[in-house]
Amino acid sequence: MINSFHSTVLVLAHKEGAKPPDIQALQNSFPELPLSFTDLLAEATEIEISYKGKYLRLYGPARCIEMNDAYEISKRIAGAILVGDNGGGEALIFLPGPERGIYRVGYGSLALDDAEFVAQSIEVLLCMAEVDATKIGGVDA
Length: 141
Fold this sequence. Notes:
Blueprint: E1 9-16, H1 20-29, H2 35-43, E2 44-51, E3 54-58, H3 61-71, H4 73-76, E4 81-85, E5 90-95, E6 101-106, E7 116-119, H5 122-126
Antiparallel strand pairs: 1-2, 2-3, 3-4, 4-5, 5-6, 6-7
Helix pairs in contact: 1-3
């Protein structure tokens, strides 16, 4: 998928893809996580991106689990899974169910009412780049 990113989505840095046991651990912890996200993590982890000039970081499996535990994301926002951040104090979360999609929410809030919808899927965000950069928030890349 990383080779299918839209031309306005620039990879600034990344680490090697996750090993199958690490991806399995992530899937065991968060079975609702879309396969497209775990497929991306098999290609690269800790992906730092310039999204139309805004910074995004997508974590690897171990960091997703660690950060979700540390911030109790799934407890504070039922079913939510922390997948990255925007470098400006806001988390990127995946929310399953009827509200399915990627959202951003401040680490100081971590409430569904404060979460802002970003994109329906990781593909819409990164491969189609249909999201306005202001929806990303955070800092300039």
